[in-house]
Amino acid sequence: MKNIKIISEVETEGKQVLVRADLEVEAGESGQRFLAAKEIVSYLESKGAGRIKVIGHEGREWVAEQLGVETIRDIREDPREEENSEQMARELAEGFDIYVNEAFATSHRRHTSICALPEVMANQEKEVCIGLRFAKEMEMLSQVLNKPGRKLLAVSGIKVKDKLGYAVRLAPRFDKVILGGRIPAEYSKYDYKIPNNFMLAKLREDMLDLDEGTIEMFKSEIEKADVIVVAGVMGKFEDPAAEKGTKEIMTAIANNGRAYKVLGGGDGESAIVKYGLRDKFDWVSVGGGAMLEFLAAGTLVGLEAVKTS
Length: 309
Description:
The protein folds into 2 domains: about 5-135, Phosphoglycerate kinase, N-terminal domain (Rossmann fold), CATH 3.40.50.1260; about 145-295, Phosphoglycerate kinase, N-terminal domain (Rossmann fold), CATH 3.40.50.1260. It has 12 helices and 11 strands. The chain has helices at about 30-45, 60-65, 85-95, 110-125, 130-145, 160-170, 185, 210-225, 245-255, 265-275, 290-295, 300-305, and strands at about 15-20, 50-55, 70, 100, 125-130, 150-155, 175-180, 200, 225-230, 260-265, 285. α10 links the parallel β10 and β11 (about 285). The longest helix is centred in the N-terminal third of the chain and has 15 residues, at about 30-45.
């Protein structure tokens, strides 16, 4: 993307570097968010950065210990974080030369550490850029829309309003959109016109999983696809009595050897790790909502904030 620097293009030796990372690590040490944070810290250390400080949301104590650098585990303890506060941004920026956004998963949110902070630092003529993982996210997700062939979007989960909104926005770019999780039970609560290419799941009576007919119907669509994007899990996969839909749909996607396969979101990553399917996906994004927003808009507010003129 034009006018956006990657950390590899910035001189970091002896510099004071502030990193906004994704510290919410549902998948543990093997998860993509933790690995991205660990990688950017290791990179900066190898390049001789003078000081490294990592900030994020909901970081667990072990995450800070593993990173081995100064860490603010949850800057949302300051309520100004969600207000995109210029004053808070000035306080965070004090003493730093470089801002790195390595928080793809939260870069669709207009928070202080995502938007106001890099804008303030840029105005102070300091360096602002994205991290190595963030740049790779952009590269891999851009291929979804650029590749030819039949495209399938699988959206599910419990955040019905947000997920449904993204599905409606993305529908024109996909040949078929299949929807599971709570969406089929709750979509009528929201004022969305359902596109013709939507395929809503039928759920079991207990609403915890797909019914048998839907599983087979979705698998048929998966077999036809050349590009597949997955956001969310089809049911309560943590419960062995309600995991069949998620397991069979994820397995069908993984076994489509022809398709370019992308998955986003913590629950989805946990599911494919549980079923031993992680290596069969071409890309596992650290973000769910951020992935969908990037595919829908082609950018994120966090990207716009680090643009240089």
